[in-house]
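note to self: the first set is below, dont mix up w the second
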Amino acid sequence: MSKEERDRKRKNKKRLRLILIFFILAYLIFRTVPTFYATTFKTTLAEEGELEDVVKAEGVVIKKEDVYKSEGNGKISTYYKEGDRAGAGKKIASISLTDDKSALEEELKEINVKIENLKKADKEGKSLKTDKKEVKENLSETIELLQDKISKEDFEDVSLVKENIYLNMGKNTDVSGENTLLKQSLDNLNKRKAELIKEISDNTINYFSKESGIVSFDSDGLEDIYSAENLDNYTLDKFERVNLKEKKIKNNDKVETGDFIFKIIYNFEWYIGCIVDDSKKIESLETGNTVEITANDGKDRIKGKVEKIEKKDGKALLILKFNSFFQDFYNKRYIDINIVKAKYEGIKVPLKSICDVDGLKGIYIKDISGIIRFRPVIILGHNDEYAIIQEGDGNNYIKLKDGDETRKTVGLFDEIIINGDSVKEGQIVD
């Protein structure tokens, strides 16, 4: 072999080694860069859970309310507390009209004192009549004794008996005339007392409940607008938010003619109405369906029925009927509610971890070897943050809806890539 051939072979071998080294380095870089990239992704574990499919809305509390207004100018007196329940025919409040009646009240006090004094004198007069009878009996006995002493000529005791006669005669005073005047005075005073009471009561207006219910001294000014008696008239076009005109009445407040003073709220049936911006969100609901709502940040959970649904231009008016928990809502008008359409149980995953690959919904997970794998899922339901996906069989396989094909899905405690759209299958994670 010539020197030129040997040089050419050495150059070829050197070239092959360089090419081999280049491919090895390229492979290592290819495998290493995705590893560094993928290790920055956040993950979470798939766990069992439950989720409610809800529609959020602002609800309007609709009630049957009887509003009572002042029939004159004056000062109000209340006989029930806010939120108390009162039966029909109960005295709820009264208004003392502003006409000055202080002189009448002062005269009434004076007459009551005089009547008490005369009653006391009358009692003493009756006691005096009893004493008069006893005096007459004693006087008769004393005269008989005096006659006996004189007949026996026992003159030493005669003077003593005479003194006793004079003493009893002094007590024998006729009080019948005085008692007659006292009775006349009492009659006149009682007559004047009745007149004064009538004059004072004529200066007061009393208010009684027409039917039983919850007493409220708070008004929002919307009792006539959002009334249970207007349910048939509510439409999407007319059901609008109206600003509150709140007024609170307290004992001894001054009121004028026509002012709100209190209301009685019928508490056996009440309603919540709301506008749903997207009617598709409640397309599964029909009139008569039983639904559940949560309110007050989930503290209250109440079951009711769909009373009315009206859909128009992609929106919907929904009116729900309730017959419990009214005590928690009697003094509210606008509340934030969640209408619970359905409940789901299964594997709970972050909603943003679900992505679409070739028209198939699924989630990327990191398997035990650290490689990113795509797992198809069947979504049962979701809210704004989470989704419930169907659990697979014992080997985590599910049957896809289209066709008879089975695929391995996400299993319990699989490590899920939260931002699924940012990874690809085959990437390596430490």
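second set (the one i keep forgetting abt)
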Amino acid sequence: MRAVCFDEFSARPVLRDVPPPVPSPAGVVVRVEATGLCRSDVHGWLGHDAGVTLPHVPGHELVGTIEAVGDDVRRFTVGDRVTTPFVCACGTCPECASGNGQVCRNQTQPGFTHAGSFAELVALHHADINLIAVPAALDAGAAALLGCRFATSYRGLVHQARLEAGETLVVVGCGGVGLSAVMIGVALGARVIAVDIDGAALARATRFGAEVTIDAGGRSPEAVAAAVLAAAPGGVDVSVDALGREETAAAGILSLRPRGRHVQIGLFPADPVIPMGAVIGKELSVLGSHGMPARDYPGLMALVAEGRLRPQDLIERRIPLDDAPDALVAMAGDRSAGGVTVIEVGRPGTA
């Protein structure tokens, strides 16, 4: 099969023929229809994730059709159209038993712990507890994005921060995950403030329902927070850092009202320094969001089915697998055109 591979961290990936995967006893092999290009893929390619071994195939947001099933799989069969959370749970550890498969101690992650979905075929483990059926009518790109950025944002806002209609949300960083948080916040009935340094990103946030946008270019976290407080006197109820930098996390935390909730979604290259004085003095909650278990997808899928949430509107480019290496390198160098890119694996290439 064809797959995007890299043999060294930061070395340009290449498209090559590799042996196809075989299903584990409790797993499946999925023929990939579409897969998202996410900044987490960049972190893996740059060597920021200790679980990645070389050579490697990236990709973790996907939708496709089951090609083969292991002998122990009971709920799914060949031909089923499915997606999966990027964190695949084992189903037996204490975390899984408590319903928190997103922090499973034995988790597997396509594109990180094993070969991912920048390929014609991908193996997924423990299928019965990790796969989610996808309606035939749902756009392939929309379905792929449900595996990571939309699931992570949904869990962060709904299950972690418990965002309610009428509350105010600030989203710092309006890339793919940030814009998904904007869209989910709007769908939940919150007032949304969007922060970024890029005018085009802020324009997208406005298009998806943000009431206020703030250009953070050249501003300190304190200055950004002051601008947020001017738009939301007293502070916001919930903040999201969707980028993963010290200054973006600080801006979100400093924007909160007393007892507000900060959700950290963006990944940091190294552990950051955060304004802990504000956390203590205002009794703030700092919450992580690391994906979402398959069992919690019904609420997210209902928003999509009702038309209140349209992940496909976030997609600005659909490219063939042949173009994926250049797109990954461009994102790493901040030379991408912004917006969300989906790789249509079955589409003829340009190379």
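remember for set 2: Residues 149-160 form the longest helix (12 residues).
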